[in-house]
Amino acid sequence: MSARVRAPELRGRGWLNTGGRDLKLADLRGKIVLADFWTFCCINCLHVLDELRPLEEKYGDVLVVIGVHSPKFEHEKDADALAAAVERYGVHHPVLDDPELDMWQQYAARAWPTLSVIDPEGYVVATMAGEGHAEGLARLIDELIATHEAKGTLHRGSGPYVPPPAPETALRFPGKAVLLPDGNLLVSDSARHSLVEVGPDGETPIRRIGSGDRGRADGPAGAATFSEPQGLCLLPTHVAEVAGYDLVVADTVNHLLRGVRLETGEVVTVAGSGRQWRAEVDDHAHDAIAVDLSSPWDLAWYDDKVIIAMAGIHQLWWFDPIKRTAGMYAGTTVEALRDGPLDEAWMAQPSGLSVSADGARLWVADSESSAIRYVENGVLGTAVGQGLFDFGHVDGPAESALLQHPLGVCALPDGSVLIADTYNGAVRRFDPASNQVSTVADGLAEPSDLVLTPAGEVLVVESAAHRLTRLAPGALSAAGASTVDGPRHRTERKPTDVPAGEVTLDIVFTPAPGQKLDETYGPSTRLVVSASPPELLVEGAGTGTELSRRLVLNGDVTGGVLQVTAQAATCDADVEHAACHLTRQDWGVPVRVVDGAATRLPLVLRGLDA
C-alpha cells in the first residue's frame, strides 16, 4: 500500500485486559497493531475473534490486537456487559470501550467487523471489512515484519495484554438447556467448553461432559472437548436407537454438531467438517460429516429432522441423523428481515428454536433483527419485530412491540411463546390469539434460553448470572404479566449523504499479497443490493457479479438503509496446489438523500479507499 495515513489516537471510555492501564498509540510504536472494530452481538465479529487467535499466537512478539468495541445495541453500551462479553468469548487482547462510536467514525468504519492494520511507525496501511481475512493478514504481517526489521523500526517483545483474575462459579455463561427424560437438566456451559448435568432443582451438579478445555476431540465424557457449545436437542427414541446417540449439541465455535450418548457421556462428531461455511447457497443434501457449517447456535426436532439455527450465515439448516445428511432449510444468507417462502426469506442471526405443542410451528428467535419469526407450511413469517435497526422494550400489539436481541424461545401448550429477551434482561410472552406481547419477568442477567418442565414451571438460563433461575409461580398467568412501555431505540450511525438519482456503488477489494481473484468455478465476485424501505432504490437492486453498480435513488424518499452483501473469491498465485479463500461482508449503510452529495459510494472489503 502506498497511502500514508496517520492512525488516529485511541480514545474511549476505558480499557479492559490491560491491568487498568490506558494505552496510547505511542505505547505501541514498533509493533504491528491490528484494530478490530467489533460489537459483541455480531456473529461475524465472533468469527473474527476466532480467526485472530492463531495470528496472535504466531506473531505474539510483534503483533498487538486491539479490540475496539463500538456497540450496535443499547445494552452493549453497558460497561459491565462489555466486560462480561470479553470474558464470555475468550478475548485475550486489550479492548477499548468506544460506546459512542467515536473511534468507529475516526477510522471510517462502516460495518461490523472492520479491521485496520497500523504499521510500526503509526500509519494505517490496510483496512478490511468482514471475515475471512486471516490468510491475507498473515501475508501482510510477514511483509511488514520484513520491511520494518530492515528499517530498524520493529520492536519485538511482549504486548500490553494483562489477563483478568479467573472467576469461580459452578457454571460460566451457560447458553442453552434441555430437560432430560429422568427429570435432570443438561446445560451447555459455554465459556467452560463443556456440558453440565444438574438435578431438577437446576443447581445440584450431577456430572460434566467435556474436559473444560477448548478443542474438538471426540471420546469419553472426561476427555472430549468442545468450543463454546450452545444448543441441545434430544432425539426421538426411535431415531436415537438407529443413530447410536441420544442428544445433538451445537458445538458453535467448532462449526460442528456433536452427538452424546447419555448413558456413558461419550461424544462423537455427527455433522460438520470443522471448516466454516463459505460457499454458494444450494438446496442439495450433503454428507453430514463433509459439509461445512457456520456457528450453529440452537437445535430443534421439527419436520422429522434436526433443524439448525445457523447463526453464522443467517439461515436455518436441517440434519438427518439416520441418513447422515444435512442441507439448507430456510434463508438465502442475506442478513435482513423478509418473510416469504423458505428459500426466499431473509433472516438475521437466528439463535433460538422451539416447536409448538402440536408440532406444526417452529418458533425462531432472530436475534439481530430483534424479532420472533416462525416457520409453518413452508413459509417464514414474523410475529414480532421490525428490522435490523429498531429495538427496545415495548409491550402491547405485536406490530408495535419491540424486543432487544432475543436469543431464546419456548413454546407453551396454549399456543403462546415465551421469549428470552436477552439484551432487555427480560422474559416476554407473545400470544398469537390476542396478538399481544407482555413482560413476564425482568431484571435478569442476559437470559438466553427457557425450559418448561412437565409440572408447568419455567427455568431461565440466566447466562450473565451464571445460573438457572426459576420463574415465580403465577408468572405465566394473565395477572402475572405486565405491560411495559419502555424505551424505543434505533441504531444510530452517522448517515452517508447521497444524491437523488444516479449513484455509483463501488466495493473496494484488493487481493491479499500473494493472492489473485479466482475464477476457476465461475465469476470470482458477487454483489447483492437491496434497500429499506424498498422504495429508496428505483434501480440497482438484485444480484450480480460486478463489484461496481449503478444505483438510482428515489428523490421522494428522504433516507433509509442500503443493504449490501459482497464477496470475493481468491486463490494463492503461482502455487501448484493453490489454496482458495472467500472474503464476504454484509453492510447496512444508513443513507440520507440530499442535494449536492457525492455520486460515488465506496465500501472497503479489503484495501484502502483512494
Automatic annotation (TrEMBL):
Keywords, comma-separated and alphabetical: Repeat
UniProt feature, compositional bias: Basic and acidic residues: 204-217, 486-496
Organism annotation: Micromonospora vulcania
One of the Pfam families matching this protein, by short name: Thioredoxin_8
Region Disordered, annotated ranges: 196-223, 477-496
Residue ranges occupied by any Thioredoxin domain in the UniProt entry: 1-146
Taxonomic lineage from the root: Bacteria, Bacillati, Actinomycetota, Actinomycetes, Micromonosporales
Highest taxon, organism lineage: Bacteria
InterPro entries: 6-blade_b-propeller_TolB-like, NHL2_NHL_rpt_dom, NHL_repeat, Thioredoxin-like_fold, Thioredoxin-like_sf, Thioredoxin_domain
PANTHER family hit by this protein: NHL REPEAT-CONTAINING PROTEIN 2
Name of the molecule in the record: NHL domain-containing thioredoxin family protein
